[in-house]
Amino acid sequence: MLAIVLGRILRMVVVMFGISVVTFAIFFATPASDPAARIAGRNAAPETVEAVRKDFGLDRPLPVQYALMMKRLFITRDLTSFANRGQKIIPAIANAAPATLSLVTGAAILWMLGGIAAGIIAAATKGRWPDKILMGLSMAAVAMPVFWVGEMVNLVTQSRFHDTWAFSWVPPLGYAALSQDPWLWFKSLVFPWLTLALLNIGLYGRVLRTGIVETYQEDFIRTARAKGLPARKVLLKHATRSAIIPIVIMFGMDFGVLVGGAAVLTEVVFGINGVGRLTYQALKVLDLPMIMATVLYASFFVVIANAVVDMLCLAIDPRMRRA
Amino acid sequence: MGPVTGGMSILPTDDNTPSPAATAGEEAWVSRGPWRRVLEGLLASPTAVLSGLLLLVIVLATLLAPVYAARVAGSDPFRSGLSAKIEIDGERVPVMQQSTEGLGLGVTPIGPTWGPQYFLGADTQGRDVAARMLYGGRNSLLIAGASTLLCLALAAVVGIVAGYVGGRVDSVLSNLIDMIWAFPVYLLAISLSIVMIGKSYSFGPFEIASDSLIVPILIIGIVYVPYVARPVRGRVLALNQSEFIMAARGLGIRRARILLRHILPNVATTLIVFAPMLMALNIVTESSLSFLSVGVQPPNASWGTILQDGQALLYSRPVVSMAPGLAIMVTVLLLNLFGDVLRDVLDPKSARGR
Lengths: 323, 354
What we know:
Strand content of chain A: under 5%
Shape of chain A: globular
Structural class of chain A: mainly alpha
Helix content of chain A: over 70%
Oligomer: heterodimer
Order of helices and strands of chain A: HHHHHHHHHHHHHH
Strand content of chain B: 5-15%
Radius of gyration of chain A: 24 Å
Number of strands of chain A: 0
Order of helices and strands of chain B: HHHEEEEHHHEEHHHHHHH
Number of helices of chain B: 13
Number of strands of chain B: 6
Radius of gyration of chain B: 25 Å
Distance between the termini of chain A: 10 Å
Number of helices of chain A: 14
Largest sheet of chain A: none
């Protein structure tokens, strides 16, 4: 068991190293493009480009460049943005992280509860109208781009119906820190949470339903029924428990991806200053060091989340321990 | 149901299906059979027929974009029409109207006229949104379709090579897949687009312009490769262990021939099942990237760029945002409905649970 966990951690470190190399290569070692010129911006004077080249060490051989960049990112942590002069990258990400974490955690709770409830109800009423309605809704939810849902929500809550009793409590777009005003924090995040959760409620509900329905074909369910267990117990204790593993795996992936910055679209639409929006703003001014850092940050989150999920699965399903 | 038994057969077969073909003629019959059954399965499902037909209507409508722009809308949807005037109820109305809200400064584009000209209103540059919807739909579908094909092709190569060659090649490719998998799709796409967009490339005789649609096609085609390559590799590994492949090996058939005649057709079903889902996913991805301004570049239109144009007009002219969003939703919904039936037809085991 310990050996498996250690092996998994070792693989995680290897993948992280690989990712940092790939990311670095995408940004600083693509052929036919000069990273110094891109960092300096469009129409930059040749002297500026040269200064940037020196400053970021881009005149050295690639492996040295890579080592320098990683050192400034992780050890001295003084890599600065060029577009917003003097802005240190690591603190900027650290400041943005709580907003993203608030958004994603709240949405995650919603989508897990909603998705599991939808999946169980749909499976229990398979073929009848609650199932049909739920699966229809889930199909529609999966088909909508998340930023468009956010825009439509804003249209209703911020503009068209903002003056009615239903939505007059919705604060203007933006993020309020939990530590400063918890009630405002909650109010400002209600609709971003719902928006971000919607797609995953549909997705998780669908996957869980399929899992439960497939599990019902298995022998141990027949045994459970034959020995006279009540139907509810068979559904919740036997079928759902074994069908929940794919959901746990999906959850780990999605949560890691979203915390890492894939919530960028939701953050942009709702004006939440999280890691995703930081990336988006860096994108607008082509702030290469910043984008590289956020991409690295995000993918590390995914790798860690994957490792955690694998270990969780080991805990849930003893069969996996053999592999 | 055990591993596939027929020589070229794609699907788990009925008991009365002929055993592995003995003669060339019989083999041809077997190879045609499963595909015909897939077609029959699709035609037997009203959902598949209806969604397929509606998708066809959408494709045809976007192909007719130039006709609509020239004959109905009567304006160039790629040139700004800030000073244009149109006739409504005998009155000449400017496309960009004086704002009535706030201080009355600035202009607001005309809203939906529900008539031939500016049916859905104008965007911030006074261009006909309805005409741009059709042109944009064309690009959205083209990008999604082409990137789907690219993704399936790349995933097939990577997955089959990893699964069939095995050994060190497999471990390198699998680790590479894992690594790309760890990049959040949008962030990977953003990274790639920063490097690729806004520059022109030349590969020998081929020149890719900086605003070419090929750039988003390449980006979207690459980012989802791991999602398909993984299951393909798994399928190939499973096939390697299956009885009919072992039998083929035992008969001394060359590896290349086994790959071509036995592995490839069986992997094809996996790929086909992925196609509609992937296409749906790619439509959403294209719109998201264009919304973040790293997808389709102006003056080209796509449903995503129209959504981006509509962002500034969300509260004053919401139709500009609503129309492309609805178009995406309907198209994706139809693709998923069609894809569900297709999967059930190709893989009856998955239908068992439904």
